Amino acid sequence: MIIVMQVGASAAEVEVVAQVIRDRGIEPLVMPGEGRTAIGIPASLSNDLRTDLEAQISALDGVSKVTQTSHPYKLASREYFRESTIVRVKDVEIGGTQFVVMGGPCSVESYEQFRESARIVKSAGATVLRGGAFKPRTSPYSFQGLAEEGLKIMKSVGDEFGLVTITEVMSGDMVELVAEYADILQIGARSMQNFPLLIEAGKSGKPVFLKRGPSATIDEFLLAAEYVLNQGNPNVILCERGIMAYDRAYTRNVLDLGIVPVLKEYSHLPVIVDPSHGTGVARYVRAMAKAAMVAGADGVMVEMHPNPKAALSDGSQALTPAVFGEMMDDLRGLSGYVGRTI
Amino acid sequence: MIIVMQVGASAAEVEVVAQVIRDRGIEPLVMPGEGRTAIGIPASLSNDLRTDLEAQISALDGVSKVTQTSHPYKLASREYFRESTIVRVKDVEIGGTQFVVMGGPCSVESYEQFRESARIVKSAGATVLRGGAFKPRTSPYSFQGLAEEGLKIMKSVGDEFGLVTITEVMSGDMVELVAEYADILQIGARSMQNFPLLIEAGKSGKPVFLKRGPSATIDEFLLAAEYVLNQGNPNVILCERGIMAYDRAYTRNVLDLGIVPVLKEYSHLPVIVDPSHGTGVARYVRAMAKAAMVAGADGVMVEMHPNPKAALSDGSQALTPAVFGEMMDDLRGLSGYVGRTI
Amino acid sequence: MIIVMQVGASAAEVEVVAQVIRDRGIEPLVMPGEGRTAIGIPASLSNDLRTDLEAQISALDGVSKVTQTSHPYKLASREYFRESTIVRVKDVEIGGTQFVVMGGPCSVESYEQFRESARIVKSAGATVLRGGAFKPRTSPYSFQGLAEEGLKIMKSVGDEFGLVTITEVMSGDMVELVAEYADILQIGARSMQNFPLLIEAGKSGKPVFLKRGPSATIDEFLLAAEYVLNQGNPNVILCERGIMAYDRAYTRNVLDLGIVPVLKEYSHLPVIVDPSHGTGVARYVRAMAKAAMVAGADGVMVEMHPNPKAALSDGSQALTPAVFGEMMDDLRGLSGYVGRTI
Amino acid sequence: MIIVMQVGASAAEVEVVAQVIRDRGIEPLVMPGEGRTAIGIPASLSNDLRTDLEAQISALDGVSKVTQTSHPYKLASREYFRESTIVRVKDVEIGGTQFVVMGGPCSVESYEQFRESARIVKSAGATVLRGGAFKPRTSPYSFQGLAEEGLKIMKSVGDEFGLVTITEVMSGDMVELVAEYADILQIGARSMQNFPLLIEAGKSGKPVFLKRGPSATIDEFLLAAEYVLNQGNPNVILCERGIMAYDRAYTRNVLDLGIVPVLKEYSHLPVIVDPSHGTGVARYVRAMAKAAMVAGADGVMVEMHPNPKAALSDGSQALTPAVFGEMMDDLRGLSGYVGRTI
User: How far apart, in whole angstroms, are the C-alpha atoms of residue B258 and residue B262?
Assistant: First the structure.
């Protein structure tokens, strides 16, 4: 941790900061600098101590800025766990050599629609089946999902086809219910900082698929993962799904593929890319799914609907079964190149 | 609603869109245009019908873009309720001629700290007392609040000083508990799209103080309010608290004061500005509180701590009691100018 | 300057960094820290030396990040010049106690239109007359201005009414021409980092009105000012005019009023706010002009057109003469409150 | 073009808008709608007429919004030119089946450094040599380039190795000079809306490499290209180089790869990706160069320095010769997969 004093901070102000550090048993390094003084803390601090010290020091007179020299997350950090985490769900390994494709409709709309989706997903060679039962919708007037009925359909269909299932859970008090039916708990982008939900998902021990918030920094993203990990649940999967940007005329979001190698360097957790929400436009999904694979992602989550034109939600970003199959062929073709199986 | 076709869309594709509209009993207006055709729907649509039609049409072949010509929110709209809403809590009127100052510490840290805060808030002339009992913290290692113990302290101190109280509720299943103790339920920026929470807060009938998400558009913000209103709860207060921006070196967020006249034009709901989170720096709060008043806000929410240097959270943005008093004097001085009482 | 090493950087890598610093005659402070080592440079560095060192060190093996502990600008900094700069143009003082209103149309369209604009500006009590002769237009198909003919009209009209004139210059090779006619050279938002232009404007010695780029950080903004100052021209006026944001449905830009107290703290240069471009909507300009005054700005630049409905550019954000007059009354009413004259 | 009226706009206000359209000889379609009226213009408009009408109508009373249903650019549009443009420079074809790699240092620092760069670029199999002679630097205290001396070095070295050369030109009055030495004129991100420069570059007839501005929308980007095309110069190459985003802690910019399929759909111009500036971190360049190829780009521009640790600018994002060679091998390996040669 480095504290930079304001220009013109008095010697007494510098000394107050130094003393606060000494009170914790650490001898600070005081560096008079270019018009302003910096103070370094040459010691390993626990997360708690660091947080306390930062809060305390940043309110002192004469302090301009407190800079952390290490990252605020720990359990999510590759500095902490060197080995890449592999999340195992039934026979699917997320984060290993397998490139995992998660496919399915935005929403579970009916047994027939969802069974047909599963059939297509399975026959195209994907291994994880997605579908929303509880839908977070920006407008209260949009279709809100089939709720528990949707979960039952999902479980039944997943079992029939031998597919791992994933669905979103929107609040802590629903974790138990959703965990009963689904294999993987999805935490949506809008819920990335729903801390009670993160904690409950952590306690459940179930694999947690955490989507990056639309304006979340990388530190915030990994700290959200930290909430889950901190409950003793190591099965966290990170998902980039596009960030909020200033041009929404052509795509819904900006897919930040550059985060893939960054997350791979700083964290040991698996990284999935969602090009469907990342672009919001079905005809750009295929190109971005391939780019995600080449950029180093461990898999993709892609919306596919048996009949996008009749979809009750997000029809404009869902692939048709035919295009989904072509995307799978693309990815299979590329997989050898990146040393992956599919 | 206007549908713009892709360039080169065939007559047959245009006809399919037109037929979908006719199937709803509306005669579309087809406008061949500059290289592409647009199709207008010259009718009032219910929210449900509009949402359905948009989902259905946007997945049709040859469709480039579906544009709404009216706003997606209804109950939050001034088109719907012409009169400005006044939210009455005890003897405080939010949205009327009174300029409402909500002051207090980030967190309830102890009975002594919070009672002293209330004393200062009261004696400076503010009418609403804020303080967090459940704290949404980016890091799991930061101070998380005193929970129910904090709520009890808040209620006891609020009653003693005759101050209206406001505190954050973080999930739907805690609404009942928080509503038992606090006068106003705050929904934090990170929870703006926590839909189960919005629905429960709506059902509670309590005044709901809704903070804008860090990257929420105005439509998303008003649709979040719509979730609460749609439960039959008309007591929604909007709060601008700064948006995520690309320069975080000098201020934590960018306070978007221009949203104040926009919200006042498009919505009938009261608008409060939070310059503490909006800037993240105590020494800019006073200037921005005044600017908020002049821009047309109905009040401000400001962090004040009896001793910011000892604060367990957000000390760097909390005003000292002395500066809080000066800010109140500033606002009183300006209030006549804007035709407000304080 | 603080150098933070990567986790696991070797002692040899740390030593290479330390040696590079020692080679410049400075003894580095090495701070082994939380899993990673930081290295401080406890000395005042010239701008050149700092820039060199940063470039050199950031490419060394094992280095994670190089952080500056002081700001990259110098001549623009209040650390350098404690006194607030007042830019004097004829009898107008920008940055002093006078609150300066710059009004006029987006473009000089004709002698009649511009003379009528000047008459209104003058009679409302404003002191600076704006109007574009060379217009930077996003589309090549938009009206591009009257060029030198426009400059002549501006000069003639400015002289007639005794108004200081300001107009935009778009490239370095046009500085001489524009400087011949106008009192203040405006550098537009899109040109903020047009470095050859900044240098020529600096050499001209004329007052330079520098608009912040739509996504410029504060450091970038002040470094652009530094280019002008560095040519020996102290007459720089900063202008906030709204930044690019993700919601453009209601306003064209987000007016960042929070930058006003920041600029006043870190720089000695005068600060003007442009609520016309900052919002892009005429009916929000009045509220934001008042908010700018209260936030501490030294003046505002506002678009006014004798007949906005007939304007050749930006008609939707121009005030009518009547509303411009009302805004002037508003500002006069508030001026006493902020200790300004108008 | 669609005009949406304000709620409560009077019949008279609607009629004024309709009459303005009729005055241009077009019969408007008036659509009374959900609380508000929309007015469609069912005709092809010239760019000039459209711009005029938009300016005029948006200032009329009762008008809420004017929406374009077609894109504002024309010559850059694939609607206008169906065939993909191939820019031919010597024996290099940009936009054809060849995947073009542009490599070289940020700056031409000396004859030796640049000749060595060219040797490495050539031997690795790249065909275009980049290097800055005039450098746009955020700070006036940073290295500003060798100017004409740098151009001479570039030309001599390019000729020696048979490499096409590209370098940045920063202002209109320097186009002639730079065009004398370089094969391709680069217009930097900060200059994307330097309209006098765009016009001069257009007049030169030379191939123009146009970088997207850090916060440019796609429409603004293609309108900048339109300025060049509108001078009769069809040789424009588009370059995505990362956009400004809110998290700059790990990468300098966010590389927007999703723009590649968008540009390919809406424009006929070649698209190059610059992963060096797009990430700002050398160790992420390789992954993003491959992702760019797979996403459909026509080539990449990559910074390589014979000795990044000694670079006078941007050393932290330059590849070493060894990694540059590995990237070329990667791209060659992938090229068959995407049906390209390299």
Answer: 7
